[in-house]
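notes to self, project folder thing:

trying the whole complex as one job this time. last attempt i did each chain seperately and stitching them together was a nightmare. two parts in total, labels are on each line so i dont mix them up again. if this works i'll redo the older ones the same way
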Amino acid sequence: MELYDKIKDGISDIFYIWRKEMHMILHDEGAQLFIFFLCLIYPLLYSFIYNNEIVHEVPVVVVDDSNSSESRKFLRYLDASPDVNIVDYAPNMENAQETLRKQGAYGIVHIPRSFSKNIIKGIQAHISIYCDLSGLLYYKAIYGTCTDVSLKMNKEIKISRLGNTTNRQDEISTAPIEYSDIAIFNPQRGMASFLIPAILILIIQQSLLLCVGLLAGTSRENNQFKDLVPIHRKYRGTLRIVLGKSLAYISIYSLLVAYVLIITPKIFHLIQLASFGTLAAFILPYMLSCIFFAMTVSIFMRNRESCLLIVVFTSVPLLFISGISWPRSNEPTFWKILSYIFPSTFGINGFIRINSMGALLKDVEPEFRMLWIQTGVYFITTCLVYRYQILLSRRHVYNRLKEMKQKIKKEV
Amino acid sequence: MISALKRIWLISIREWKRMVSRPLYIFCMVIAPIFCYIFFTTLMGEGLPNNMPVGVVDMDNTSTSRNIVHNLDAFQMTDIVAQYSNFDDARKAMQQGKIYAFYYIPRHTTEKALASRQPKVSFYTNNAFLIPGSLLWKEMRMMSELASGAVGRASLRAKGFTDKQAAAFLQPIVIDAHPLNNPWLNYSIYLSNTIIPGILMLLIFQMTIYSVGVEQKNNTVKKWFGYADNNIIIALTGKLLPQTFVFFMVTSLYDAYLYGFLHYPCNGGLFPMMLAALLLVVASQAFGLFLYGAIPSMRLAMSSASLWGVLSFSLSGFTFPCMAMHPALQGLAYLFPLRHYFLIYVNQALNGYPMIYAWKSYLMLLIFLALPFFIIKRLKMELMNYKYMP
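result (full assembly):
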């Protein structure tokens, strides 16, 4: 009977703490900002920035020393391509460089004097391209387009030399083995389709870190002894506090996560191959591990503002350590090990594969398992730090009581 | 009567003592930036990712197809880690994150090639991870051209062409690419040079607001202004100068680390970059102050600063060029100090052009310095009259 009462008591305490925490979150201007602004507006902003996906019409300047029908044909093809735009024909390299310096163009295409002569003589003719490397996408656009155009012209030249009789013969002799390239899972090779899913996942973790950290800082500031846990009848058990608080975060974030991960990509027509069941099953441990991770970290937040200073700048390293940009296969071991600390690492990798690549839950099993392990580990650490905080605040109160008793004794 | 300089000095001493006594200041001003220097440069220390995992589906399994596989494996960035027996297995492996790309050679490829029936090979690159995807695409495409060329060369040789003649016949036009000033296409050079100052800028925004706001929060504004004889310009100068100094030291450290130690391209000399770094520090401080004056709640101001700071990574246009963004965003980009710093870096350090070509960007950073003067009266009123609202 005693056990039954204890459980009943515990559950009622959990719900008391849950209510309290919900009240705190919903009535704290700062928390609202982190939750709603960060989760509701940020994804839209990022999608808006990257929504054009690729760079079109990169400006290049041309130096055509050959000035022949062949070179003009090359340039016509080049200009007609979607990714490159010829903005100027410079008389010499010096002038072209000047355009580059003034940022009028990001690349120079130089066709040498011998170009058409070499083609006619049957010697390899060279075209030089010089690219500004301030952005790799410029280089990719210019180099890729020039290669495409050269392959196209090569084919035409070969055909004219071969003197075949049928079209089929032309095709076979110019490409004995055909090939096709398929950019799978992001067919337009777009920036948004690749970056936004990772950002969405990261936003959830960062928002939780900020929100939980802010609330912890607030509790400390409002507490007489700068302690995290108040002295209150309802706040005496570790498990009650941890479960009650996490329940509050779960109830708020389940809705937000659904918005961030399902609705935002819809608005901007990003790739969404995930089935709802798979996604939900995967996101559950991600959300839980983020919540307990945030709760563990939050004990370091001494006041309301410190979480901003400590959390915000980590977003960029965390994005990189997840392997979304620099491939994970090439990450130095040390950083790979460090990345195991953060739920975002596995969250990002798993989510991209589920959402953008249509993977099933069993395909992301390693990530899924790691997230559950993290949930467990951070749940335990949260309990430990909260246990410690409860003891700490008790000791503070006890000391204060002793002090007061002594004072009274002295006065008496 | 104490002179203004003396007052500034006194406030600076006071601020200095606060800075060295609080772990939060030391963390945000020194430890976090240095961590980022080391993090980004070692994470991408390889420059270009070599030997990324790639799979092969060789249904043909002849000496010719195996030759293609071997040659592909020999490429710098490709590392063939697995052979799959069919297309589905390879796709599954990709979905499991084991490989970034795979090469597919269908049955009878060799046979068809020999009989002039034009077989078709294909390769699949996973562009959900854009960088590995596009780098591997480049190598696999080159491999496919070579494979096609090899067949052509064999038949040309049989007709009595020399190798040189055959090459000229198969590839009449060749593109010679010259990526300027970063011929290795080193990703660390490309990214670290802007990410690191970006993180510094974000931290400067926040620290500026925090260090002013904390006076209000702790009710020490009167004391602080007392040192300055209630002159807000003196008060702020004294307060921010020590931070300017520390942040400038930290940025100089990164100049020394990137350009001196790692030998990243710094073709315009160190002076323009140090000047740019100094301007970045003071422009960011000015912008932080401006935000605090415009949004008088410390936390709201810090949150806006964070928003601005994080957005500047995207809007500075060093990964996704500004020219490809919505026109409204292209205009907005001017309001981000990092955008101007990035343009200076490209102009000076990467390309080594004379400083005159970057004057606009230097000027823009200077203009940021004027921002606090618009809000200084308001800021003073806020600081003197209002209490901290949590």
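what i see at first glance: The mean pLDDT of chain A is 90.
need to look closer tmrw
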